[in-house]
Amino acid sequence: MSSVTIEDLDIRLSGVDIIRQLNLEVGTGEFLVLLGPSGCGKSTLLHSIAGLIDVHDGRMAIGGRDVTWADPKDRGIGMVFQSYALYPTMSVEKNLSFGPRIAGVPKAEITKRVKRAASMLQLTELLHRKPAQLSGGQRQRVAIGRALVREASVFLFDEPLSNLDAKLRGELRRELKALHQELGATMIYVTHDQVEAMTLASRIAVMKSGVIQQIDTPAAVYAKPANMFVAGFLGAPSMNFVTGQLQRNGDARRFVSPTLQVDVSAYPFVQPPAVGQPVVLGVRPQHVTLTPAEATGTAGRAQVSMVEPMGSHQIIWLDAQGLSLAADLQAEMTQVVDGHVGFTLDAAHISLFDPGTQARL
Predict the structure, then answer these.
(1) Cis ω before 237 (30° cut-off from 0)
(2) Name one GO molecular function term (predicted).
């Protein structure tokens, strides 16, 4: 187990800057998830840590040892790819033991490592099968086991579950979390799937265009996004955004827009805002509550435009004077399309952003 330190990292591919001046510290035993849309640079960053992509500038250390220009085999890493990358003519046992055999590890030690990895990943009964005889989930278990038998300092995962169906993804996600808890190993995991990020990570680093937008615990990133990109990327459906102004009446502050009004007096501003300042209010669907259209105290009124049943809950889409809002409600709460409702927001869970910089206020 080792820490990973990245300082002022620049990566340039075909003359194009992919990552610029990136700094990152991954603690020993941490499960860090690099999260972001396709093309944001997360896989490029992971491959540079593995030594598969040369850096243009900067420094990289694993366990305090400078590995900026070290070969992949000398970095003490184990990597799991999206495409399994198994040897088709070898049995599961041979696939698992290949790395240590090439490295000259004694046979008894290899057997011990393979047995332990197979037991942890429920592969013991499959050791004599070939990859073609395995399901997708079993193949990915073998790929993970191959990294484990190296007894690496750091484990790197490049979207390892993206080729699996939803049920298998859920099962392997739980197994990976249990594996990290058992091993206590340092793991860096790349994904664009926010569910994987929220359930697996000790910390999440949200990336956009090669820049880390926010790095924090899953709960902190979800509840207090640093900017509108992070707020909109996390959550399904994503956060509702409403543009308006701040107004002041004595000590009270209100967010006012043509669509809704909310008391934001208790909002923890980073800096005191100016009166009349344009702001964007963000609120997640689960913090939107529907009320009868004629009820007093509503933040606004809207027409139900669509209902999406989700089993235990449902997403109600509202048309509030041309603005689309989502509300996440229990399945038992029946709403009629084209019906009119009022709605309120939980002011304790709103976010306010600067419309220019898109940063959290």
Answers:
(1) yes
(2) ATP binding
